[in-house]
Design goal:
CATH topology: Jelly Rolls
Strand order of the largest sheet: 1-2-10-7-12-5-4-3
Order of helices and strands: EHEHHEEHHEEEEEEHEEEEH
Cofactor: Fe(2+)
Family: Belongs to the iron/ascorbate-dependent oxidoreductase family.
Number of strands: 14
Pfam families: 2OG-FeII_Oxy, DIOX_N
Bound molecules: 2-oxoglutaric acid, fe (ii) ion
Largest sheet: 8 strands, mixed
Structural class: alpha+beta
EC number: 1.13.12.19, 1.14.20.7
Helix content: 25-40%
CATH architecture: Sandwich
InterPro entries: DIOX_N, IPNS-like_FE2OG_OXY, IPNS-like_sf, Iron_ascorbate_oxido_reductase, Oxoglu/Fe-dep_dioxygenase_dom
Strand content: 15-25%
């Protein structure tokens, strides 16, 4: 049993050197797991460096994102996510309010997922985030490069989850079975500068928690991401070149019975330059049931959430934040 303690009040987000997560020595992997354990019980956000993904690959993915968003609106609209049964493709400006019930986010996006055989039952059933990827006809090379980036991020998410398993006193391969046919989504986001003459700053991405297991975010050097600490204050997640911002998602919070925190965060692009970010979401297999880990519940601290499948949980969050706009056209 891992005893529960309430979170402390983080003022900054730690930078974790991830190099030892790849070490053949278990003690070194455990040392990284312990760092992740501490911060996951607190603010649930941290940076990783020495993660093994070449910076040149990240930089060129940003270049592709800029090229994509610079396409004429008609080209982007031709692959609107409402045309994809799985919800992949282009997210038009204002389509989502991540802070449910608030004004729409000042952002546009593009997202794609796991390359799965079109005759896989999940794809045939039209399940959320399986197959039906839409790519713009006007950008040859975009898909191939984005797939290379995706493969690197997916591999890193496996390593991260093996260390997280260790941090929860589980076997390191605990999550592997549910990562084989995953909901794993690469998103690219474009936050335009505030409109000229705007009275109030508009939120780029409203306050929200991420829904899945873990998120790995690359951000450019503009800044604007903020994370809420246990005192309810917003702390800045300033850009650090060469890092990914990692955060714990709702499904891990539920699995760990609130031991680990899926924390609120938001983006405010107040500047005069556009901001781009590349969040990768590893959410696991839709069929998997998330129920309190044995090490995280006891008679004194019973399970706080009813078991739910990953697919059902994500379906609910999409409906809440996109509303009717998520319906396929
Ligand atoms: O753009 C960012 O920095 C964060 C985006 C985000 O939080 C999300 O897409 O869930
Ligand atoms: Fe997020």
């Amino acid at each position: 049993m891992i005893p529960y303690t309430p979170p402390a009040t983080a003022r900054t987000l730690p930078v974790i050197d991830f190099a030892d997560a790849f070490s053949p020595e278990k003690a070194r992997r455990e040392a990284v797991a312990w760092e992740i354990h501490k911060i996951s019980r607190d603010v649930g956000f941290f940076y990783i460096v020495n993660h093994g993904v070449p910076q040149a690959l990240v930089d060129s993915q940003f270049d592709w994102a800029r090229r994509f968003f610079a396409l004429p609106q008609a080209g982007k609209s031709a692959i609107d996510m409402r045309r994809s049964p799985s919800g992949y493709g282009y997210e038009r400006m204002g389509a989502q309010a991540l802070d449910e019930g608030s004004p729409a986010d000042l952002k546009e996006g593009f997202q794609f997922g796991f390359d799965i055989a079109p005759d896989h039952p999940y794809v045939q059933r039209g399940l959320l985030r399986y197959g039906h990827n839409l790519w713009p006809a006007e950008l040859p090379g975009f898909e191939a490069h984005s797939r290379r980036y995706y493969d690197a991020l997916r591999a890193l998410s496996h390593r991260l989850l093996s260390v997280i398993a260790l941090s929860l006193q589980l076997e390191e391969d605990f999550f592997e079975p549910i990562l084989q046919t995953p909901i794993a989504t690469q998103r690219m986001l474009h936050y335009p500068p505030q409109p000229q003459g705007a009275q109030d700053n508009r939120i780029g991405a409203g306050a929200h928690t991420d829904w899945g297991l873990v998120t790995l975010l690359a951000q450019d050097d503009i800044g604007g991401l903020e994370v809420r600490n246990a005192d309810g204050e917003w702390i800045r997640a300033a850009p650090i070149r060469g890092s990914f911002v990692v955060n714990i998602g709702d499904l891990l919070q539920r699995w760990s019975n609130d031991l680990y925190h899926s924390n609120f965060h938001r983006v405010l692009n107040g500047g005069t330059a556009p901001r781009y970010s590349l969040p990768f979401f590893q959410d696991g297999d839709q069929a998997c049931t998330v129920a309190c880990l044995p090490g995280c519940c006891s008679a004194a601290r019973p399970a706080r959430y009813a078991p739910c499948t990953i697919g059902d949980y994500l379906d609910m969050k999409v409906r809440e934040t996109f509303g009717a706009a998520s319906a396929p056209a």
